[in-house]
């Protein structure tokens, strides 16, 4: 049983920030190399799911970890409130449409888990619906992995309440970051205990395991995500196609 309150949100003291930042650049370059081969081979795909409280650094991960990827072979989808058409379908309908095609790396900034997180916290759905949706999520991710050769990598960016407060305040105090400010983020922050409970449920009930990433320091957060992505992609039998193979 994973309890988020028992997991540290900061980097180990022995690590040196400059060394880790250099390693992140190497790992990002390696991801770009592997993604290039995967795109050419068109046999495998990767889905990266980034979840976390506001200010945990989801956009920062996309920029620093996947910045060396070929734009032709990577897509990013930021989950917002469902539109009218999406509301008219089952909650996974929009996810099926944007699941990565063979050869592509897809990054979900937030994800299908929002439908058992924010909706559960605000009691827009009852507990019976939560259980049913969790089963559907597990079936969806298993389908991608077993039937479509899609590697599903899920990251919970584990930020502390104290660090989140600093990040949200920066969006008020620093002009260059004010475009990120959203008053609703402060309201959601008041529901921190409820969110932690719902995240723990999603993490512990998942069939495809989560990576819990300490997110108080950006450099360590980026390193942990990049390292896990490289390790997963290097396990795939990626090979550049040749004329002989065709």
Helix/strand order: HEHEHHEHHEHHHEH
DSSP, total strands = 5
Shape: globular
Uncertain residue segments: none
Strand line-up in the sheet with most strands: 2-3-1-4-5
Give Rg in angstroms: 18 Å
Counting DSSP H or I runs of 4 or more residues, the number of helices is 10
Largest sheet: 5 strands, parallel
What percentage of the residues does DSSP assign to strands (E)?
A: 5-15%
Helix content: 40-55%
Structure classification = alpha/beta
Distance between the termini: 48 Å
- Mean pLDDT across all residues, rounded? 96
SSE inventory with pairings:
Layout: H1 17-41, E1 45-52, H2 58-65, E2 74-78, H3 84-87, H4 93-98, E3 105-109, H5 118-121, H6 127-148, E4 150-158, H7 161-173, H8 183-189, H9 192-205, E5 210-214, H10 218-234
Parallel strand pairs: 1-3, 1-4, 2-3, 4-5
Helix pairs in contact: 1-10, 2-10
Structure description:
With 246 residues, the protein is an alpha/beta fold. Helices cover 49% and strands 13% of the residues. The chain contains ten helices and five strands; from the N terminus they run αβαβααβααβαααβα. The chain has helices at 17-41, 58-65, 84-87, 93-98, 118-121, 127-148, 161-173, 183-189, 192-205, 218-234; strands at residues 45-52, 74-78, 105-109, 150-158, 210-214. A five-stranded parallel sheet has the order 2-3-1-4-5, with helices on both faces. Helix 1 (17-41) packs parallel to helix 10 and helix 2 packs across helix 10. The longest helix has 25 residues, at 17-41. The protein is globular, with a radius of gyration of 18 Å. The termini are far apart. The mean pLDDT is 96.
């Amino acid at each position: 049983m994973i309890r988020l309150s028992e997991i540290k949100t900061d980097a180990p003291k022995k690590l040196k920030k400059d060394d880790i930042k250099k390693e992140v650049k190497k790992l990002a370059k390696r991801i770009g190399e592997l993604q290039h081969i995967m795109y050419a081979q068109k046999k495998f795909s990767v889905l990266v799911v980034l979840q976390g409280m506001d200010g945990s650094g989801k956009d920062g991960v996309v920029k620093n970890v996947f910045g060396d990827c070929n734009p032709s072979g990577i897509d990013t989808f930021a989950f917002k409130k469902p539109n009218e058409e999406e509301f008219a379908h089952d909650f996974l309908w929009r996810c099926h449409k944007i699941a990565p095609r063979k050869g592509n790396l897809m990054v979900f900034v937030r994800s299908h888990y929002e439908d058992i997180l924010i909706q559960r916290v605000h009691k827009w759905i009852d507990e019976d619906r939560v259980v049913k949706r969790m089963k559907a999520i597990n079936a969806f991710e298993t389908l991608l992995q077993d039937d479509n050769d899609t590697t599903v990598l899920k990251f919970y960016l584990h930020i502390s309440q104290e660090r989140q407060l600093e990040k949200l305040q920066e969006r008020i105090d620093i002009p260059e970051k004010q475009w990120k400010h959203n008053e609703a983020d402060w309201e959601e922050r008041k529901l921190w205990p409820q969110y932690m409970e719902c995240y723990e449920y999603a993490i512990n009930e998942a069939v495809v395991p989560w990576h819990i990433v300490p997110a108080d320091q950006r450099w360590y957060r980026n390193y942990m995500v990049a390292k896990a992505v490289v390790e997963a992609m290097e396990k795939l039998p990626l090979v550049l196609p040749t004329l002989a193979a065709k």
